[in-house]
C-alpha cells in the first residue's frame, strides 16, 4: 500500500470514528464500561497509525492561494489572567517561556530568543473536532531543537504545555504530546500567523502547532513547557484539559 493510499485510508477511518464519537459521547460518558471501550479503541488507533504511517511523514501543506480568508479563532480569544494581560499590554516585551521539568538545563526564553532558534514556515490545515477546517501559514521555532538545547533527561517521555487561558475560570488550559510528535519537523512554537505577529485571538505570543493532530491539541497562550515521565500529577492525570474531560489524548489525523 502506497504512503498516499495509507494516509487516505487513515483519514477516512479517522473521520468515521470522529463521527461515531460525537454521536455517542453523551451516552458513553455516563458509562464506565463505555469509557473503557473508548480508551481501548484510542490505544488501537494510535498503534495502527504508528504502524501504517511513517512517524516523520509530513502533514499536507498548501499554496498561499488556499489560505482561508477568515481563520476561526476557537476556544479562548482574550485571556483574563492578570499577568498575561500585563504582558500583552507591553507587547510581550518582558514575557518569557519557561522550559523545565525533566531537563538538564532549565531555561526562560524571551520572544526574541525564541525567534533566534531554528525556525520553519508552513501552510497547513487546522482540523477542529467541531467539524470545521481552515488553512493558515504558521512560522515558529521548531520544538525539537529547543528541547535539545534544554537537554531532556533519560526518563522524559512527554512535553506538557501550560497556558495562560482558562475555559472554565478555574483551571488553566494544558495539553501534552509525546516525544515522537515533539520532534516531528512540523511541530512548532508559532509566533507568526500569515506573515504577521501572532494575534492575541490566536494565541499570542506563541501557540503550539502539531500538524498531525486535531485542533484541541494546538495549545494557545503557551507560558511553560514541562518535560515529564507521566501525567499522574498533572490535573486529572489524562494529559490535557479535554482528555481529562473524556476526549481522546492522542488526537491523530
Structure description:
The protein has 253 residues and is of the alpha+beta class. The protein has 2 domains: 1-54; 59-245, Alpha-Beta Complex (Sulfite Oxidase, Chain A, domain 2). Helix content is 28%, strand content 25%. The protein is built from 6 helices and 10 strands; from the N terminus they run H-H-H-E-E-H-E-E-H-E-E-H-E-E-E-E. The strands form 2 sheets. The protein has a 5-stranded mixed sheet. Strands 3, 4, 7, 8 and 9 form a 5-stranded antiparallel sheet that branches.
What is the fold's blueprint, element by element?
Blueprint lengths: L2 H26 L3 H21 L29 H8 L6 E6 L5 E4 H5 L3 E9 L5 E10 H8 L7 E9 L5 E7 H4 L5 E6 L2 E2 L9 E3 L12 E7 L25
Parallel strand pairs: 1-10
Antiparallel strand pairs: 1-2, 3-4, 4-7, 5-6, 5-10, 7-8, 7-9
Write a compact overview of the structure shown.
This protein is α+β, with helices and mostly antiparallel strands and 253 residues long. It contains 6 helices and 10 strands.
Following the backbone from N to C, one meets helices and strands in this order, namely HHHEEHEEHEEHEEEE
Structure classification? alpha+beta
Oligomer: single chain
CATH superfamily of the largest domain: Oxidoreductase, molybdopterin-binding domain
Tell how many strands the DSSP assignment holds.
10
| Tally of domains | 2
Low-confidence stretches: 1-31, 34-38
Q: What is the first-to-last residue Cα distance?
A: 18 Å
How is the largest sheet built, in terms of strand order? Answer: 2-1-10-5-6
Radius of gyration computed on alpha carbons: 18 Å
| CATH class type of the largest domain | Alpha Beta
What portion of residues belong to β-strands?
A: 15-25%
Please identify, by name, the CATH architecture of the largest domain. Alpha-Beta Complex
Amino acid at each position: 500500500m502506497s504512503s498516499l493510499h495509507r494516509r487516505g485510508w487513515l483519514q477516512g477511518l479517522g473521520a468515521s470514528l470522529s463521527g461515531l464519537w460525537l454521536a455517542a459521547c453523551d451516552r458513553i460518558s455516563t458509562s464506565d464500561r463505555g469509557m473503557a471501550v473508548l480508551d481501548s479503541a484510542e490505544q488501537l488507533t494510535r498503534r495502527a497509525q504508528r504502524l501504517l504511517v511513517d512517524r516523520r511523514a509530513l502533514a499536507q501543506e498548501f499554496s498561499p492561494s488556499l489560505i482561508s480568508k477568515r481563520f476561526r479563532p476557537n476556544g479562548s480569544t482574550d485571556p483574563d489572567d492578570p499577568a498575561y494581560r500585563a504582558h500583552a499590554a507591553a507587547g510581550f516585551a518582558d514575557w518569557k517561556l519557561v522550559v523545565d521539568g525533566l531537563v538538564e538545563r532549565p531555561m526562560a526564553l524571551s520572544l526574541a530568543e525564541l525567534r533566534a532558534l531554528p525556525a520553519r514556515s508552513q501552510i497547513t490545515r487546522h482540523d477542529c473536532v467541531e467539524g470545521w477546517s481552515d488553512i493558515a501559514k504558521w512560522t515558529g521555532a521548531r520544538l525539537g531543537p529547543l528541547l535539545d538545547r534544554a537537554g531532556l533527561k533519560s526518563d522524559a517521555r512527554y512535553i506538557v504545555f501550560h497556558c495562560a487561558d482558562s475555559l472554565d475560570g478555574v483551571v488553566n488550559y494544558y495539553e501534552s504530546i509525546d516525544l515522537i510528535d515533539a520532534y516531528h519537523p512540523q511541530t512548532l512554537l508559532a509566533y507568526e500567523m500569515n506573515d504577521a505577529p501572532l494575534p492575541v485571538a490566536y494565541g499570542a505570543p506563541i501557540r503550539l502547532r502539531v500538524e498531525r493532530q486535531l485542533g484541541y491539541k494546538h495549545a494557545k497562550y503557551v507560558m511553560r513547557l514541562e518535560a515529564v515521565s507521566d501525567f499522574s500529577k498533572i490535573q486529572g492525570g489524562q494529559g490535557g484539559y479535554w482528555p481529562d474531560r473524556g476526549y481522546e489524548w492522542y488526537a491523530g489525523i
